[in-house]
Amino acid sequence: MYSLIRPALFSLDAEKSHDFTLAALDRSAPLLRPMYGDRAPDVPTRIMGLDLPNPVGLAAGLDKTGAHIDGLSALGFGFLEIGTVTPLAQAGNDKPRLFRLTDERGILNRFGFNNEGADALVARVRKARYSGVLGINIGKNKHTPAEHAVADYVAALTCVHPVASYVTINISSPNTQGLRDLQGRDSLDGLLAMLVETRDQLDYDSGRRTPLAVKIAPDLDAAGLDAVVDRVRYYGIDAVIATNTTISRDGVALRWHKEMGGVSGAPLRARSTAIIRKLYARLGDDIPIIGVGGIASARDVQEKMAAGARAVQLYSGLIYRGPGLVRECVQAAAKVAQAGG
Question: What pLDDT was estimated at residue 65?
C-alpha cells in the first residue's frame, strides 16, 4: 500500500510531507494497528532493566514534540523514543531544512531541535494512551552558551523524568552549534556527573529507576570513542545509542556537499555499523548498544545485531519503505534471537 502513495508524498516539500504523514498516521491508527502492530511477533528483550515486546524501536527525531505517540505505537514498535526536546520551546533552523536524497535513499536534515519545549511534551505524554516503553531524548537550547549547557540538560531531565521510561542524552546532533563538543572527555565528564547525580535524586524521590542512555556521533575517531566509553563506564550509563546523523558526504551526490546538516539513511548504514562494532569491542555485554543508522531491511537489522547491537531503531528507512518495515525488522530480530545471536 505504501508503495502506491509514496510518489504522491514525495511530490510534496519534504517537511510538509513529514507533517502530513504523521497527521494521517494519527487518524489511521485504529486501522493500522491490526494490520501492522498486532502482527509483529513477540521477541521479548530486556535492555536497561526494561522489558520490551521486541527490540525494534522508533528513533528520536521523527516525533520531536510527542504529538504522535499513539499513532506511531500502532506500527508494532517494541519501544518509542521521542524528542529531541529542549527546556524552552524553539523554532529551530530556517527552512528549508529537510531534504530527501532519493537516489541515495537517504535524508539530510538541519532541523536544529525544533520543538515546543519540555513542559508541552510532558503534557502530551500524559494524554497519550500508549503504555509501553517510552524514551525521551533531551538536548540544550540553541542560544544557551556552552558554559550553561549542563543546566539545560539538568532542566530537561528534571522535567521529563516523571513520564520517561528512559532518557537519552543527545550530545551528537550536528545541527546545534557546539553540541558535539560535549562528547569530549572533560565536557562529557562534567555533563554526566551532574546528570547522574540529578537522575539519582529524582529516582530516590519518585521511588523508581530511570535509565540514562547517551547518543553518540558516527564521526568519532578512535580517541573520541575511547573517551566516551571511559566516561560511560565510569558513570554507569545504561546504554549507548549509535549513532546520530553524519556530517560526512561519502556516498552522497556532489550537489548535496555544500548543504549543511546531518545525513541519515543508506549513506550512514556502514559508518554507524562500524561504530557499533568498535563500541562492542570496548564494551562487550557490559553496557548495551542500541543500533541506529540506515536500517531499511531485515538484512540491515541482522548486520547491526551481528556487530553488537542488542536493539535497533528506525527513522529514515520508514520514509522509503513505509510501516511494513517495522514488522520485517521485528521478524529479522526474531530470527537472530532464535539463532542465539
Answer: 98
